[in-house]
Amino acid sequence: MKRIFLESHNLKNPYSGFGQYNYHLIKGLAAQDLSDWKITLHVKNVKRWKKEFGDTFRYRKYRSLTRHKPFRIKKKYHLWHSLNQNIKIEPFFQLPYVLTVHDIHFIKEGSAHVQRKL
Q: In Å, how far from its chain's centre is CA 33?
């Protein structure tokens, strides 16, 4: 059985762009046959997501302390997947790692009105 870690802390705000991506990817995974997989969701509010997804996934509570190298997650997984590029949580051990990079472009053309920061 393969163990996969999904660094999905952006579910803390499921209405943001990264939160929406995290949510819909996880929801799609939950609809699949995962009998050969043990997928761990890294989330801030375990209770909320366990209520929605139940025992489909395992859960690990997000704590900002794990950003620091001595406190990184020490469990070994077959695959670690960070669901976006702004992550600061890295695995303690070297292991296969997938990083999803979202193609975000900032406006550099057009009128000053279009370019102004809100």
A: 20
